[in-house]
Each structure stands twice: as C-alpha cells, then as structure tokens.
Write a structure and sequence with these properties.
The complex is a heterodimer of chains A (224) and B (244).
Chain A lengths: L8 H9 L6 E5 L17 E5 L3 E6 L18 E9 L2 H9 L5 E5 L2 E3 L4 E2 L14 H7 L2 E5 L11 E2 L14 E3 L3 E6 L2 E7 L5 H6 L5 E9 L5
Parallel strand pairs in A: 1-2, 1-5, 5-8, 6-9, 8-10, 12-13
Antiparallel strand pairs in A: 2-3, 3-4, 6-7, 10-11, 11-12
Helix pairs in contact in A: 2-3
Chain B lengths: L4 E3 L2 H4 L8 E4 L10 H10 L4 E4 L6 H4 L15 H5 L3 E6 L12 H7 L4 E4 L2 H13 L3 E4 L13 E4 L2 E7 L3 E11 L5 E2 L8 H7 E11 L19 E3 L8
Parallel strand pairs in B: 1-12, 2-3, 2-9, 3-4, 4-5, 9-11, 11-12
Antiparallel strand pairs in B: 6-8, 7-8, 9-10
The chains are: A alpha/beta (224), B alpha/beta (244).
Chain lengths: 224, 244
C-alpha cells in the first residue's frame, strides 16, 4: 500500500512543543523529545528539568563553549537560563516522584490502547536502559509520547497490548506521531489530528487498536 | 574537628581496597562529576570480583556521550573495569546505549555471562543510596508498578495506590568527585556535577573524594558546602593549596 509522505522528527517536535503550558516545569527525554526545546518561542516561560540535577537551561550547540559542569541527562552541553538551579540526583527524583514536574515528553517503542508505555528495551536484545523513564511516567502530571507511528518494517507501535517490557502502565495521555495526534481517553484512543494528505483509513491501517475519530478531528498542526 | 588524610597520588588514595568489594562510583556517567583519575587507578590496581554501583554505566567510550569535543581522545567510563574483567556485578540504571552497534564492553560481558547487570530505575537507585546513607532500611515507591521491576517485590496499598518496597543500598567504598575540598573534608560541587556524588558520599564505609583542588578551611565558604566533611574519609588532588 502506498502512503502519503510522513512528517519529520522536527515537525513532530514542533507539535509536541505546542503542548507545553506557560509557566510549566518540563522534562524532555533523550532524542526526538529534546528537539521540542528548539521550537519554543523566546517569550515562553517554560523551565526545563533534567534528571542529573538542573532546572532552567537552554541547549547549546557551540562546540567551543562546552562546560563539563553544565550538561543535561542526554549528555548535551547547556547554557544557563534565568533562574537556574542545581541539585543532586535524590533531590532531582524527589521533584519527579513527588509530582512537581508538570509535563514529560518521552520517546516510545510501543504504546497500548490503555496508555501503557514500553520504551526501554527491545525484547530480542534482552538488556536495556531504564534510566529515569519509569520514575517520570509514574511521577509527572502529564506524559506525552513522541514517536514514529510504525516501525521501519511497518509493524504496529500502537498496539492493543505492548509486547516489549513495560515502562509504566496507564500513564500515557497523548501520542504524537509522524502521521497523527492521539489522546488516550477512558473509551480508548481518540484520534484528534491527522497529517496533511493522510486520511482516517490510512492512519487506522497502521494502528492495531480501533481509533475513535474525534468530533473535532483536524489537520495536524505543525511547521512546514 | 577531624582533619582528613589528603593524598597526592590516586593510587595511594585507594590503599586497602581489595577483591570482592562493593564500590559506588559517583557522577552521572558524563565527563563532569566523574572521579576519572580514581577510576583509572582502580583499573590499574587490578582487584577483581567487584560489585560496582553507578548510574550510567558505560556509554561514553562508544558514543562520546557527555564528553567535550576537545577531550574526545581522553574518554574514560566504567567500561574499563569490564574490559579488564574486574566486575562480578554492576547495579545501575543506564548500562547500554540505544544503538546496538558497536556493542559496549558491558553488553559483551553480560552476554558472555562474565558479569551480572542489575538495572534499577534511576530515581529508585538514587533514593536507595540516599536511604542507605540516612539509616533508612527501606522505603515505598510507585515507580516500576506493573513492570518487571515489580517482580517478586513486596508491595503495599497506601491510600488508594500500590507501592513497592525498595531496600536501601550501601557499599564498602564510594569514589566521589567534587570541585573543592578543605582539610576537614567539606566539599563544594560545581553545576550538574553533583548528580550521584553527594548521596554516594553518605552511603559507603570508606568515602574517597577526588577534587580539582584542596583549599584551607579559612577560605571555605560554609554556605556553599554540598557535602559536610563528616561523610568524607580521604581526599585526593594534584592541587593542594595547603601543602604548597
């Protein structure tokens, strides 16, 4: 089956960045989620948290200005933002576990129809890295997953039941993919946005659980 | 107040470490906050059958993770202990990178059944160590409910939520990195280089701290102390303003 072109990682990240409320504390996962920061308008008041013990930073890419004492959990070098603070790992996870982080945006390997997430181990590998993901999904007030809708072989990543080891159960509130935006609601998966040139049937054909089309279904809002 | 022993040699600072010990290694797994010189000395000491405890276990040497571009040729991480076949077991939260190739020393060692790898959620690992240092034998957390972390653990319903019982974690030795120490073992950290260092300093029988420099307590600002000297046994640095 021939499908229309999918959105890029940057287009997914832009869409996810629109989910971050003003004055919120946000933890972005490694990889695609970390791209969100680059799409926040400069007047937005959002404080980023990283597990290794920092609140209030910007990502930098200037290779001549790297400070080994100013780094995020993904190993990226940072520049300080207004109101920056440092703390140790126990304090950092008190913030997470204690429910002080408003939103976390994480990558995903699989999400189930009831919002279970698998994102730390590919089953066949037998070993993986949990990192801070399990703490984040059980502690943050809102969990958003950004990922490609299907695998490179077109296998489902949005499933009735995850078959990779779980990161958390019933934790994902919203899935933002390269073709759709889906909310996890009590009734199942609510399809709220579809990428340009895609239709409901195409998105459903790449999704194992039945999608409920929203009464307000609209085109995926992102950059070109 | 108790004056601490200040070493000039990293090797001497590890005096008395032996086979079969459990050793916490501070920092996050990136360049900043890692006791790199103590790690090199521990490898060269060649003691075996160690249980290591650290957060990110050995990503940098194959991915460059968290190291400055200008220092890429000097990257050291916990892989050196696996390559040197010193590790019985590692307790960590992030042992391997997402990409499968090249295979890290830790994954090789795990595959060959030379070392056991116990993977713990990062916040639970941090709290186990904090609890260990604070004399709290165990605590309840909801992290890991419904996952393989829950396997065979005791749980309890508190309020309407289910929580897992997690036990404290202590070690024989902690290798810690701080920015500045004084002769009483008070430590100042810098930026994100705190991470697991302050909690590990509290949780071991013997805490050995690598610092950028040692200064006189007369020049130490007590408001900035991140780890009070009560937790510290040995200090090692190439820059000791007190002796010079």
């Amino acid at each position: 089956m021939k499908y229309p072109p999918k959105l890029s990682k940057d287009q997914i990240a832009y869409r996810a960045s629109q989910e971050l409320p003003e004055n919120s504390y946000v933890n972005l996962g490694i990889g695609l989620p970390s791209l969100c920061a680059k799409y926040l308008e400069t007047n937005r008041n959002i404080t980023f948290h990283a597990e290794n013990g920092i609140l209030g930073f910007n990502e930098i890419s200037d290779k001549n200005n790297q400070d080994e004492n100013l780094i995020d959990a993904g190993g990226q070098f940072l520049s300080p933002n207004k109101g920056i603070s440092f703390f140790d790992s126990a304090e950092s996870f008190s913030m997470i576990r204690g429910g002080h982080i408003d939103v976390t945006v994480l990558g995903g390997l699989q999400v189930s129809k009831n919002g279970d997430l698998s994102n730390w181990m590919i089953k066949s590998r037998g070993i993986g890295s949990i990192g801070g993901a399990m703490d984040l999904v059980s502690g943050a007030k809102n969990v958003i997953v950004t990922m490609e809708h299907v695998t490179k072989n077109n296998d489902y990543k949005i499933l009735n039941k995850c078959d990779f080891p779980l990161t958390g159960i019933k934790c994902v509130k919203k899935i933002i993919t390269d073709i759709a935006v889906i909310e996890v609601v009590d009734e199942g998966l609510l399809l709220t946005e579809i990428a340009k040139n895609w239709n409901y049937e195409d998105v459903q054909s790449l999704t194992e659980p039945k999608l409920i089309p929203s009464d307000y279904l609209k085109e995926y809002c992102t950059i070109n | 107040m108790a004056i601490k022993e200040i070493y000039n040699s990293y090797d001497d600072a590890l005096e008395g470490l032996n086979n079969n010990m459990s050793i916490m290694i501070g920092g996050f797994g990136v360049q900043g906050g890692q006791p790199t010189n103590l790690m090199i000395a521990l490898r060269d000491k060649n003691i075996k059958n160690l249980t290591l405890i650290g957060n990110v276990a050995g990503i940098s040497m194959i991915t460059g993770y968290g190291w400055k571009d200008s220092d890429k040729d000097k990257i050291i991480d916990q892989s050196i202990f696996f390559k040197n076949k010193q590790v019985k077991k590692i307790i960590c939260s992030f042992p391997i990178p997402a990409q499968r190739v090249p295979v890290s020393e830790i994954e090789k060692s795990w595959k060959n059944k030379e070392s056991e790898v116990e993977i713990i959620p990062q916040g639970t690992l941090a709290e186990k160590i904090r609890a260990g240092g604070a004399g709290i034998p165990a605590f309840y957390t909801k992290t890991g409910i419904g996952t393989i972390v829950e396997n065979e653990k005791e749980s309890k319903i508190i309020g309407k939520e289910k929580y897992l019982l997690e036990y404290a974690l202590n070690a024989d030795v902690a290798l810690v990195k701080a920015h500045i120490a004084d002769e009483f073992g008070n430590l100042i950290y810098k930026g994100t280089s705190r991470a697991f260092n302050p909690i590990m300093a509290t949780a071991a029988k013997l805490t050995i701290v690598e610092v950028d420099k040692v200064i006189s307590s007369k020049r130490m600002d007590p408001e900035r102390i991140g780890t009070p000297g009560i937790y510290v046994n040995r200090i090692v640095s190439k820059f000791n303003e007190i002796s010079s």
